[in-house]
Amino acid sequence: MNCLTEEIAMLYADREMSPAEAFQVEAHLPECVACRDLIATLTEENAALASYFQAPLPNRRLTAFSHLAGSIAASITIAVPLQWVVAQVSQASVWVNYVASLPFEAAFRAVRAFAPLMLLLIITQAMSFGMTRRTSQGPLVIPSQETIADSVLATGETVLVEGKIEGNLFMFGRSVEIRGEVIGDVFAGAQEVRITGHVTGNVMAGAETITVSGQVGGSLYAGGRNVHVDKGARVDLEVLAGAETIAIDGAVGRSLTAGAQSAVIAGEVGRGITFGGNKVLVRSGGKVGGDIKAEVPDRNSVQVDPGATVAGKVDVSIAERETSNPWARPGTYIWEVAVLAGAFLVGWLLMHLYPAFFTGTLHNVRSWASAGTGVVALIVVPVAAVVLCVTLIGLPMAIGSVFLYVTGLYLAKIFVAAYLGREIMGGKNGNGLPTLLGLLVGLVILQAVFFVPYAGGLLKFAVLCLGLGAVILQVRRQTLTAAAQ
Amino acid sequence: MPSGEPADVDALVARAQLGDSTAFAALYQAFSRRVVGLCHHMLRDRDRARDAAGDVFMRLRTSIASYNGSTAFERWLLRVAANRCIDLIRQRRLERRWIAEDETRADPPSSAASPLTLLLAKESRTGMERALGRLPAEHRLPLVLRYYADLSYDEIGAELDLEKSQVAGRIFRAKHMLRKLLEETPR
């Protein structure tokens, strides 16, 4: 008999051979050291695997929970600044009185609609066990000789990525920069975001200043005060931005969609520009490969300098004043649907990822303790956060609690809706979870009821209190159980 | 044998088959850890594993009638649990390709990888846990059923609708993938 292949040896070690086959192997073994060693190694390996499986499971409850809290906090770090920036810019726009043309608002709303999407993406990403974390109180550097073959969460006062990341990169800090290479998507929340290196996927950034001086292989989704694609830089696909000023000095492969006070194009946009806001300027040497569609206060607000090329036509429409009835505008409905879809997706995800947490919270919804806890939390948390902010040491805690608070508020409606939906439509398999249809029905009912004048506002308050209280009680219970285990 | 196992399982089972509630409680006490563990390794989610295990014990009240004593009770129970998990995976289509046919698409494994024994010795449990989590279900499930539930290739084949040779191939591949994954993670 010839020597054993590893697969044959495995069959023997696993005792999966017929007596006749095993007999042949046993006849061969005494004359062959290599095969004896192979069998011995495989047998040992089997024993090691079996003993690994025999050992009790590690207790994951607490870590899984802190994981959830961490990832939600991380997602809020991006969603909240984004919302904030949008709110600031919207307010500023009202102040300088060029208010709310439809595409202008629509673009902002599109950016706002990203918030739940990002939440989803980040939760799912953070859930993957493989995520590598790099954190620092001060500056964090991933040096140029380092390659991380994994998704990375990097946080620090400043974050500098000089190395190579083969996975998605989530980066948060005061100032963050990619000089190296990211083979994947980038999610960044910071005061200043700079991309001087190479990102093969999309970049989603919420920051005061976002500058691309390198290469982005996907699209750039940016919400900030200033968004700048530098000379020599390139975004292969689209740029979608809500900002005060947008400057394209480099190249954008496809289209530019922007809501901004001003957009200045001195570089190249491969396809068209859709703009809502105050002013569009295509400078000499600038190239637009398609149409320019702009909704601006007056005709002079779109300016194409001599020496600039626009391949398509320039289509200017004059922004009308916002009608007083929001229901007359289609944007309102689109926005409401986006909010609903976001809440539904987040609810669905939570239901699948944390069914026990979900049922526990639903169970709390009907209790008076939830309502009480909710009322107290609704008032106490912001006050406590302000007090903590005053003491500098408490600052991280204050920020952390505000993150969790805002998250709780977002989730409150979802849990109450799920509860409603379950009561109305019934649950599935009696596992305490509502059906997806139930969740949707609950959300639609709540969303509709909130619009009733006066009573709707009161009800919203009640729902927030109940939901927030239910979430807090459940978090507390699970933390206690975990601590007791 | 797990430490929680009572001396006379057969007597307990016999009493449970007659509908004795305390016997069910004792069986739960004795085997719930093993069942939860199997579900955990198969479903890769602690909460879902608990739900599935709870389900198995709930249904045990009726399903225990079909236990005829031809195999050890624990083995039989683990097969029932495995069945439940496979149903759940199919239902939720957790991984659509979990039972994909094409064995051939994977490149032949290199035999240069060091044996798992060495890697397991220096590897933390979490490293192993993570590596297992990265195995596609089609390879993870046979491995778990073989070395956790101690099922034979034929029994695994019956659970997963596979030929014995396919089971062997998948376990072989799974071990190679594990070796590679464990070698790759520097920790």
Protein described:
The complex is a heterodimer of chains A (about 475) and B (about 190). In chain A, the strands form two sheets. In chain A, strands 1, 2, 4, 6, 8, 10, 12, 14, 16, 18, 20, 21 and 23 form a 13-stranded parallel beta sheet that branches. Chain A has a ten-stranded parallel beta sheet with strand order 3-5-7-9-11-13-15-17-19-22, with no helix packed on it. Chain A is of the alpha/beta class and about 475 residues long. Chain A has eleven helices and 23 strands. Chain B is mainly α and about 190 residues long. Chain B folds into two domains: about 1-105, Rna Polymerase Sigma Factor, Chain: A; about 125-185, Winged helix-like DNA-binding domain superfamily/Winged helix DNA-binding domain (Arc Repressor Mutant, subunit A), CATH 1.10.10. In chain B, about 70% of the residues lie in helices and about 0% in strands. Chain B contains nine helices and no strands. In chain B, α7 crosses α9 (about 165-185). Classes of the chains: A alpha/beta (about 475), B mainly alpha (about 190).
Head-to-tail CA distance between termini of chain A: 56 Å
SS summary, helix count of chain A:
11
How far apart are the first and last residues' alpha carbons of chain B, in Å? 32 Å
The count of DSSP E runs of length 2 or more, i.e. the number of strands of chain B, is 0
Shape of chain A: extended
| Number of separate helices of chain B | 9
Report the structural category of chain A.
Answer: alpha/beta
Salient structural properties:
heterodimer; A: 485 residues; alpha/beta; 13-stranded parallel sheet; 10-stranded parallel sheet; B: 187 residues; mainly alpha; Rna Polymerase Sigma Factor, Chain: A; Arc Repressor Mutant, subunit A
SSE blueprint and pairings:
The complex is a heterodimer of chains A (485) and B (187).
Chain A: H1 6-13, H2 19-28, H3 33-54, H4 61-95, H5 102-127, E1 132-135, E2 139-142, E3 147-148, E4 152-161, E5 164-165, E6 169-178, E7 181-182, E8 186-195, E9 198-199, E10 203-212, E11 215-216, E12 220-229, E13 234-235, E14 239-248, E15 251-252, E16 256-265, E17 268-269, E18 273-282, E19 287-288, E20 292-296, E21 302-304, E22 309-310, E23 314-318, H6 330-353, H7 355-365, H8 368-390, H9 395-425, H10 436-449, H11 455-484
Parallel strand pairs in A: 1-4, 2-4, 3-5, 4-6, 5-7, 6-8, 7-9, 8-10, 9-11, 10-12, 11-13, 12-14, 13-15, 14-16, 15-17, 16-18, 17-19, 18-20, 18-21, 19-22, 20-23
Helix pairs in contact in A: 1-3, 4-5, 4-9, 5-6, 6-7, 6-9, 6-10, 7-9, 7-11, 8-9, 8-11, 9-10, 9-11
Chain B: H1 9-17, H2 21-43, H3 46-63, H4 73-92, H5 116-122, H6 125-134, H7 137-147, H8 153-160, H9 164-184
Helix pairs in contact in B: 1-2, 2-3, 2-4, 3-4, 7-9, 8-9
